[in-house]
Amino acid sequence: MRTGGRGLLIVGAGGHGEVVLDVAKCSGRFADYLFLDENPAERGTHVQGVEVAGSHELLSRLDKADWDVIVAVGDNEVRRRLAAQIDELGWGFASVTHPSATVAEAVEVSPGVVVCAGAVVNPGAHLGAHAIVNSRAVVEHDCSVGAYAHIAPGSCLGGGVQVGSGALIGIRAAVLPGTRIGDFAVVGAGASVIKDVSERAVVVGVPAREIRRETIGVERVVPSSAHPRRRGGTVAVTGVGGGVGLPIVRALRASHLSPEIVGFDARSDSVGFLWCDHGRVVPYAEDPSYVETVLSTCQELGVEVLIPGSDPELLPLAEAKPVFKEAGIETIVSAPDAIRVARDKHKTWRFCEENGLPFARTALGSDARRLAGEVGFPLIIKPIGGSATRDVSIAQAPSDLQSLAGRDDFIVQEYLLPTEWLTRDGTKHPGESHLFANGSIRQEDEISIQLLFDPSGEELGAFASRNRLTNGVPVLIEPLQDEGVIGKGRELARSLLPLGLIGPCNIQGRITEEGLRFFEINLRFTGITAMRTEMGFREVDAVLDRIWKSAPLASARAQLASVRHSACMRYVTEAFMPPSDLRRLRETGEWMSEDHGT
Question: Any bridge partners for residue 278, and if so which?
């Protein structure tokens, strides 16, 4: 045990962490200091003479009797996430106030609050957990500042203002007395707020006007101008308007690396651009100029890492990986041989057959009648290289196979009936209720296993879940702690290593009477990457740490070590932008967030 008083563990060694260290030192309350930071590159360095000892995982080896904790990350959402993870470990939080700040006696200060130099907090105010009242900010009498909110330097809240959880009041903004600011709203720098601001709205100007309302799932995502980030290199993601690219961007927005994010998409009205620092319209992957355009744009914008976000882009980028490498750009994609096996569902079946791996029996469309004779109906009909449920149908009788005569661009696959369904209704013969729900193909009790590998074939981690999907989109995700299931997925994934599997590998299947059997492999991140990240399985960070930053294996695995096994429900939501921004995006093919000059 340490002697001579309690120390302070400061989680976050960036710019805000330096400020918190100064506030804490000036307060004179603590005998010692130590930084913790999620970025492996920071470990072993010093900030103002204080060591960065490791990530917050180090808390499990420290004595709670010796240390207090404060989360010193300026990004409200990241601060919320880290505080929740640390709280689960049973740690308490300190609040710190600079001696030059004026905090009235009748102020309620919650754990984790930081009040910086020159700030004023008047009687009757309430400061929620992990809120920040920054330098020379004024919080007048009877104000309520929500948990994880940030009152930026020089801003002023009039009497009785209510600021919601996670909201940001920008530098030198003013909020009139009695006004309500909704949860996760953003008030731009210098704005003057004269009326209530809706939840998740972004308002700017004098008087403040709403320019958009940015939501995605239950998680706030705001433009980088709303929370300046400590830049950690530049990462590009392709297909940011799709169901895989945008979740990768969301994971990057929560990354400890705090990268500058470049988004690529073939559509100028891609919603994913709104969550990127830069966005560029590029040709579709089938276009002969695709690779050249992406490469030259990456060079122009200083991209260091490129992550594919859609299936059609995997093979072109895999084949061009040496060209990108020569240009100093790391591409997170497996080798062409591995991609070809995974993208062609008939090759996937043959590969699994040859390696004794459990996969749904599959045949080319021209051979559909033979498979029907072997396994019976129903059969799934899919494009040989398709994604999600596009052009997927169910054959229930020989007449449904007529259109497949001579067509080897489609495959047929046996229908895998989950044991859960057999238990519920006692039948071994799929009926209409097993095949369709609300007019769509039924996709329930599907097993998804996400595995990650470094270039040497070392596994970084694995995450299994039981999912329910609607039209190919996961809407319910339940983590599955079953080593037998994960072991089967690991066996299949490892068989792909000699073909050049690198980075993410997603395997999908169902648990049938014959055991776990797979029906698809995707060598990429997936549509639930952001959800797994929110649950603590920070897969994008782990891969970037290991492949891009060359972090030690243990450091990369630490990004995957704090999984919270809670179910996640997903729904469609909206994002708003001014029509003028949409017109400019369509005209120029380029998106740039506000802090980059647009």
Answer: 262, 592
pLDDT in tens, 109-148: 999 999 999 999 999 999 999 999 999 999 999 999 999 9
Q: What is the largest CA-CA distance in the chain?
A: 83
Active-site residue numbers? 141
The most confident of 49-63, 362-376, 387-401, 424-438, by mean pLDDT: 362-376
In sequence order, what are the residues at sequence separation of 6 or more whose Cβ sits closer than 8 angstroms to the Cβ of residue 555?
A: 40, 43, 55, 545
Q: What strand order describes the sheet that includes 67-71?
A: 46-47, 50-54, 32-36, 7-11, 67-71
- Residues 492 and 508 sit within 8 Å (Cβ to Cβ): no
Nearest Cα residue to 328 out of 298, 294, 308, 290: 298
Backbone angles phi, psi at 273, to 5 degrees: -60, -30
3-state secondary structure of 253: helix
HSE-CB for 363 with a 13 A CA cutoff: 19
Question: In angstroms, rounded to a whole number, what is the distance separating the alpha carbons of residues 385 and 80?
Answer: 40
Q: How far apart are CA 531 and CA 219, in angstroms?
A: 10
Alpha-carbon distance 144 to 132, whole Å?
13
Buried-state track 447-471, b at ≥16 Cβ within 10 A, e below 16 = bbbbbbbbeeeebbbbbbbbbbbbe
| Strand 436-437 versus strand 440-441 pairing type | antiparallel
Residue 58: strand, helix, or coil: helix
Q: How far apart are CA 51 and CA 42, in angstroms?
A: 9
Rounded Cα distance, 576 and 561, in Å: 35
pLDDT at residue number 528: 93
Rounded to whole angstroms, how far apart are CA atoms 368 and 384? 13
Provide the pLDDT for residue 61. Answer: 79
Cβ within 8 Å of residue 71, ≥6 positions away: 11, 12, 79, 82, 83, 86, 93, 112, 130
Identify the CA nearest to 71 among candidates 62, 80, 59, 60: 80
- Encode burial over 517-546: b for 16+ CB neighbours within 10 A, e otherwise: bbbbbbbbbbbbbbbbbbbbbbbbbbbbbb
Separation CA 578–CA 211 (nearest Å)? 6
Helices (H), 132-269: 245-253
End-to-end CA distance of the chain: 54
Q: Which of 217, 213, 204 is nearest to 174 (CA)?
A: 204
Per DSSP, 544 falls in state I
Note if the pTM is more than 0.90: no
Residue 282: pLDDT band with limits 50, 70, 90: very high
CB 417 within 8 A of CB 454: no
Residue 442 is classified by DSSP as: -
- DSSP annotation string for 374-433: HH-S-EEEEETT--TTTT-EEE-SGGGGGGGTT--SEEEEEPP--HHHHHHH--SS--HH
R_g over Cα of the chain: 26
Contacts of 367 (CB under 8 A, 6+ apart): none
CB-based burial of residue 313 (10 Å sphere; 0-12 exposed, 13-18 middle, 19+ buried)?
buried
List, as one string, the DSSP characters of 200-223.
Answer: TEEEETTTTEEEEEB-BTTB----
